[in-house]
């Protein structure tokens, strides 16, 4: 029995000894736990794993801030500290120091950084306090880093890509501008200087004083007040004659075509807090500029480029230990199909009138011009637009900040060519005429609706005459004869109610609600709720020059221009040819609404349009004038223009007269 009791005691002691051994701290487990905290960037808890000797060298606060400052400065992301814990751990029972291998990978502002490390763990403490601790030093952050050294960064900003037209004329360029500033200590009389500078720069004295009173300003500092074009030599000379005023040259974005391309190209500005939130994770900082409008905004990702940088350690003797370096990548230079001179000439013809215009190559689908009038000078946003200038733009009744070429409007009689096409497609005889007496017509079943035409030619009206005289009653009757389904399906074949797959956001043209015979009749001649953009109108007319097909529109050129079809067989080739011949009579016939351009001596097919705009049926509304014109013998230019408020000024003839000089210049 005594032998049995002794054996039991020895067995129990062995079990307790093994249990005690299994509870001994393991350096592998300790370091695995440490790397988990590191991957979470929980620097406060990481500090608890440092050896007592290390903690004498660096405080918890210093340790935490050191990591945070370096990782923030180098824009560390996707941190991965990899330590592969062995499945079978070594017996470290008699050891006091262990070396373990690990790797650190991260992405930074200077590119990917990858390094291999050795961690030293030491066993310290007694009894229950005994454990394995990290013998930390600066090399754990970067192998090259030594005590007392600092990690520095240098950024290489990306050059923003430029936007040019089809002939490589600059539309959005990186150029040099004059930066006007004041050195406070050199002013002879502060209030007098501020007053003079404000007057010349079209600023208020408060705006100038706000800049001079910024917290960073010192008497000897150059304080930027406003930027301006170097072309304004007379103004710059006047400013430089004032004591205390200096002018520096600085690189900025410039827009050579100013108002003519403002809505198309847009402008850049400093990234706002809202912008940074929206672009989070895409490498933007508060010091970056981003596209604010137009193609500058739409093509931001392609124009921005990729900034580079260098992460390095500067030693006491001035040498550099480079940790990572990445060159900046320049943004893409984007070539548009736009003809900048055509764009400028179209804009010039509007003479600050309200309207929109589009020009395309009808054979290829290339966009040659997209104009919105009135407009604004985007350079003012680069130079620093004043509060007074911004207020004037916002309060201008003509709304120069509104982009009209991306909007839709009632197309008026320009839709009649489409109604004629749909009628032909559904078997209507173009020679069949209707005899209408007077200027007004209504179905006998209509109680409160009628169709009015501009004039009564006193002869039966067939399809060609209906286009020549722009007869509302003829096309209203044709829409009624087709019925809602055939008429709307015909419009959809031309791309109505369908978004454009296009390089610039253009509102889709829409048919609207056709819930009565009256609305169907009105839609047949371009009223009711039918809405079109000038670009889509131009595209629909291109079908007449492409055997009934509509090319896909595009705005940005690639390595090779490839014609793609957007709408195939909107009408047949024969029907397209018939409509084209009728539209040439709109110009050539003495009574044609487009006869005003007949003396150009060019074979042009065209159609005018006048859309009535009123809040209610009995309201006294206004009118928008339209004109679409295309060269039929050498079809490289097709234009659709719209001008608002032409009532009492000649209606659509206003637009014919506006377009005529451009047709003369570009078609002859």
Automatic annotation (TrEMBL):
InterPro entries: Beta-lactam/transpept (IPR050515), Beta-lactam/transpept-like (IPR012338), MecA_N (IPR007887), NTF2-like_dom_sf (IPR032710), PBP_dimer (IPR005311), PBP_dimer_sf (IPR036138), PCN-bd_Tpept (IPR001460). Keywords: Membrane, Signal. One of its GO terms (biological process) is cell wall organization. Its EC number is 3.4.16.4. Its main location: membrane. It is found in: Membrane. Residues 1-19 form the signal peptide. PANTHER family: PENICILLIN-BINDING PROTEIN 3, PEPTIDOGLYCAN D,D-TRANSPEPTIDASE. This is serine-type D-Ala-D-Ala carboxypeptidase. It comes from Peribacillus simplex. Pathway: Cell wall biogenesis; peptidoglycan biosynthesis. It comes from the Bacteria. Gene3D superfamilies: DD-peptidase/beta-lactamase superfamily, NTF2-like, domain 1, Penicillin-binding protein 2a (Domain 2), Penicillin-binding protein 2a, domain 3. The keyword Signal applies. One of its GO terms (molecular function) is serine-type D-Ala-D-Ala carboxypeptidase activity. It catalyses: Preferential cleavage: (Ac)2-L-Lys-D-Ala-|-D-Ala. Also transpeptidation of peptidyl-alanyl moieties that are N-acyl substituents of D-alanine. GO terms for cellular component: plasma membrane. Residues 157-319 form the Penicillin-binding protein dimerisation domain. Belongs to the transpeptidase family. Residues 355-660 form the Penicillin-binding protein transpeptidase domain. Residues 26-148 form the NTF2-like N-terminal transpeptidase domain.
């Amino acid at each position: 029995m005594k032998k049995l009791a002794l054996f039991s005691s020895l067995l129990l002691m062995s079990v307790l000894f093994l249990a005690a051994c299994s509870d001994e701290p393991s350096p592998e487990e300790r370091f695995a736990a440490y790397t988990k905290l590191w991957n979470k960037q929980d620097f406060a808890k990481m500090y608890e794993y440092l050896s007592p000797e290390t903690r004498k060298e660096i405080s918890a606060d210093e340790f935490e801030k050191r990591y945070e400052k370096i990782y923030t400065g180098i824009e560390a992301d996707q941190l991965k500290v990899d330590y592969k814990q062995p499945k079978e751990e070594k017996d470290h029972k008699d050891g006091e120091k262990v070396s373990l291998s690990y790797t650190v990978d991260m992405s930074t502002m200077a590119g990917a950084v990858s390094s291999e490390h050795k961690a030293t763990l030491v066993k310290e403490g007694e009894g229950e306090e005994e454990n394995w601790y990290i013998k930390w030093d600066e090399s754990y952050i970067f192998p090259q880093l030594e005590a007392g050294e600092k990690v520095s960064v240098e950024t290489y900003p990306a050059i923003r890509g430029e936007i040019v037209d089809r002939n490589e004329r600059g539309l959005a360029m990186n150029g040099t501008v004059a930066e006007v500033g004041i050195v406070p200590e050199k002013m002879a009389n502060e209030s007098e200087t501020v007053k003079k500078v404000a007057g010349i720069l079209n600023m208020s004295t408060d705006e100038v004083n706000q800049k001079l009173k910024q917290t960073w300003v010192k008497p000897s500092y150059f304080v930027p007040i406003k930027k301006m074009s170097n072309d304004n030599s007379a103004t710059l000379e006047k400013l430089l004659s004032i004591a205390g005023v200096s002018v520096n040259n600085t690189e900025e974005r410039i827009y050579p075509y100013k108002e003519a391309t403002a809505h198309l190209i847009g402008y850049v500005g400093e990234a706002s807090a809202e912008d940074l939130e929206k672009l989070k994770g895409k490498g933007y900082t508060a010091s970056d500029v981003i596209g604010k409008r137009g193609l500058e905004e739409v093509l931001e990702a392609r124009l921005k480029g990729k900034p580079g940088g260098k992460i390095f350690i500067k030693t006491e003797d001035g040498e550099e230990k480079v940790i990572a370096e990445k060159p900046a990548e320049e943004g893409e230079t984007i070539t548009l199909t736009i003809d900048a001179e055509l764009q400028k000439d179209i804009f010039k013809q509007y003479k600050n009138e309200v309207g929109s215009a589009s020009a395309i190559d009808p054979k290829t689908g290339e966009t040659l011009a997209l104009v919105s009038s009135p407009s604004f000078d985007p350079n003012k946003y680069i130079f620093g637009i004043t509060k007074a200038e911004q207020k004037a733009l916002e309060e201008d009744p003509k709304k120069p900040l509104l982009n009209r070429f991306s909007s839709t409007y009632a197309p008026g009689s320009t839709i009649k060519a489409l109604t004629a096409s749909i009628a032909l497609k559904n078997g209507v005889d173009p020679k069949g005429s209707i005899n209408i007496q007077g200027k007004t017509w209504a179905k006998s079943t209509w109680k409160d609706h009628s169709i009015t035409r501009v004039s009564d030619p006193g002869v039966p009206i067939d399809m060609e005459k209906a286009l020549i005289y722009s007869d509302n009653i003829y096309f209203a009757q044709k829409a009624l004869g087709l019925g809602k389904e055939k008429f709307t399906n015909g419009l959809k074949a031309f791309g109505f109610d369908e978004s454009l797959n296009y390089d610039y956001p253009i509102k889709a043209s829409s048919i609207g609600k056709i819930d009565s015979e009256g609305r169907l009749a009105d839609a047949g001649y371009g009223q009711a709720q039918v809405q079109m953009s000038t670009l889509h109108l131009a595209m629909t007319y291109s079908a007449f020059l492409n055997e009934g097909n509509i090319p896909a529109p595009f705005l940005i050129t690639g390595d090779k221009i490839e014609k793609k079809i957007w709408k195939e067989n909107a009408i047949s080739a024969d029907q397209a040819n018939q409509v084209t011949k009728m539209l040439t009579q709109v110009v050539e016939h003495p009574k044609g609404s487009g006869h005003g351009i007949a003396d150009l001596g060019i074979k042009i097919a065209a159609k005018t349009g006048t859309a009535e705009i009123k809040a209610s049926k009995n309201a006294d509304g206004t009118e928008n004038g339209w004109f679409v014109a295309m060269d039929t013998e050498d079809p490289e230019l097709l234009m659709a223009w719209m001008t608002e408020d032409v009532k009492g000024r000649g209606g659509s003839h206003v637009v014919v007269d506006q377009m005529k000089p451009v047709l003369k210049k570009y078609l002859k």
